[in-house]
Write a structure and sequence with these properties.
The protein is of the alpha+beta class and about 350 residues long. Helices cover about 30% and strands about 25% of the residues.
């Protein structure tokens, strides 16, 4: 059976499973409770306390109803699964990459920690206020989703901040090693030339990036999603402190950048598969209207790494067959998971210590 968890914060809904659990428990308790909750809250913070062996769940109850059933709700924010079964916790941590929202597993003894984690609202860049001089560098948001994922470090002094800033830029340009900054089951990234052949070294404008997402890839990209780097740019301070860079001294039109601040960005867009000669179809789960803009900013002793997603629309109009189904699912659900989990890992990894 499944019951509501009592005495939770107002921005959290939770349930506890005991004894034998069936699909009917979800239909009569869980889904109606969530539907009522989402009617009063824009974001869904959810706790599921599994206080019963997994064998007490019917296959339909566990696989179809709790996991595939989340597609019914678009407002997933944080999902804490509390269980002493290691397989359940590990599975919970791994699905962050394919389902909307953030997922985290906790032991039964950590129920209070799970509640605190689920109740904590983390501000993203848009909520905390992205500076106008950054917004002017981004594509206009016209359709689809808009996402912002950010991490910040405060250095002890300007010299240390400059070091963190320059190191983050070098890591951002090292596309082939992005996965090193992300958790297991993350996507793999490979820089490629105009023919789709692997490249080593720093990224440059015009390069392609081959992306190997967990799970099946698109037929159009021979199993891979592809993006192309359309812009690499820097403010004068950023460019002046990058050794052997091909960037001009200043190529960012920033009218009101703070004194002594530096900005560096890479912008990529879903593209064709360069390995397929003459192809014009977008080999990506998002339409080519979407962009990902990776921005590293130094402002005083503060260094921030942010990934801005704009105009994120599933690529279903152009795709055919199984690609249409796959892109619809990954584009509407998986893209949220990437921005909330993998991108969060990446921005933190760009700034972390050696």
């Amino acid at each position: 059976m499944i019951d509501l968890l009592p005495d939770l914060p107002s921005n959290v809904i939770g349930f506890k499973a005991t004894g034998e659990v069936t699909r009917e428990d979800f239909e009569k308790v869980v889904f109606p409770g969530i539907k009522k909750y989402t009617g009063t809250s824009r974001k869904l913070n959810f706790i599921f306390f599994v206080d019963t062996p997994l064998r007490n769940f019917s296959v339909g109850a566990w696989i179809r109803d709790i996991w595939l059933g989340v597609k019914k709700f678009a407002a997933w924010n944080k999902v804490a699964i509390v269980s002493d079964v290691e397989k359940i916790r590990n599975f919970t941590d791994s699905v962050s990459h394919i389902l909307p929202g953030e997922y985290k597993g906790f032991l039964s003894s950590q129920l209070e920690d799970a509640v605190r984690w689920a109740a904590t609202e983390e501000q993203n860049s848009s909520e905390s206020g992205t500076p106008d001089y950054i917004r002017e560098l981004l594509p206009a948001q016209i359709k689809g989703l808009s996402t912002e994922t950010s991490a910040t470090v405060m250095a002890d002094n300007d010299e240390d901040a400059r070091y963190v800033f320059e190191r983050a830029i070098e890591r951002l340009l090292d596309v082939n090693n992005w996965t090193d900054h992300c958790r297991p089951m993350a996507a793999a990234f490979q820089l490629a030339d105009e023919m789709g052949e692997p490249l080593q070294g720093r990224a440059t404008e015009g390069d392609f990036i081959q992306i190997d997402l967990p799970g099946p890839g698109p037929r159009e990209g021979k199993g891979y999603d592809w993006v192309q780097i359309e812009k690499i740019a820097a403010s004068s301070i950023a460019a002046a402190n990058l050794p052997a860079t091909d960037l001009p001294a200043s190529n960012l039109p920033i009218p009101a950048i703070p004194e002594k601040a530096g900005i560096f960005l890479i912008q990529a867009r879903p593209s064709r598969d360069p390995q397929i000669k003459g192809s014009t179809r977008t080999a990506h789960f998002l339409e080519d209207s979407a962009t990902s803009t990776f921005v590293i900013e130094k402002n005083g002793n503060k260094v921030t790494a942010t990934i801005f997603g704009r105009n994120e629309v599933p690529n279903t109009a152009e795709a055919e067959g199984m690609d249409k189904l796959r892109n619809g699912l990954v584009g509407s659900v998986g893209a949220i998971g990437l921005s909330k989990a993998q991108w969060k890992d990446l921005v933190a990894g760009l700034l972390e210590k050696e």
